[in-house]
Design brief:
Strands 1-5 form a two-stranded parallel sheet. The longest helix has 19 residues. Strand 3 and strand 4 form a beta hairpin. The chain is of the alpha/beta class.
């Protein structure tokens, strides 16, 4: 049985987590039905970052891009 509570404990963690939403700018990634991959990927990585920072202490979270900007592979890996 799964029981939920309103008490939140932060888990101590000394890690760097890097999310790479890829695409961005003129690179839309996959698209269909008015939805583009670059938008979904960026929203998902921002939500994941928010979750980690809210639930873990000592964790550092980086995004290779945080706006709808195209970055080359070299730019995405040099931070």
């Amino acid at each position: 049985m799964h029981v939920t509570t309103n008490i939140r404990r932060k888990i101590d963690m000394s890690k760097l987590v890097v999310f790479d939403p890829g695409h961005g700018g003129h690179d839309y990634g996959a698209s269909g039905h008015g939805v583009v991959e670059k938008t979904i990927a960026l929203r998902a990585t921002k939500k994941a970052k928010e979750y980690l920072l809210a639930n873990y202490t000592g964790v550092r979270v980086a995004l290779t891009r945080s706006t709808d900007k195209y970055l080359t592979l070299g730019q995405r890996t040099s931070f």
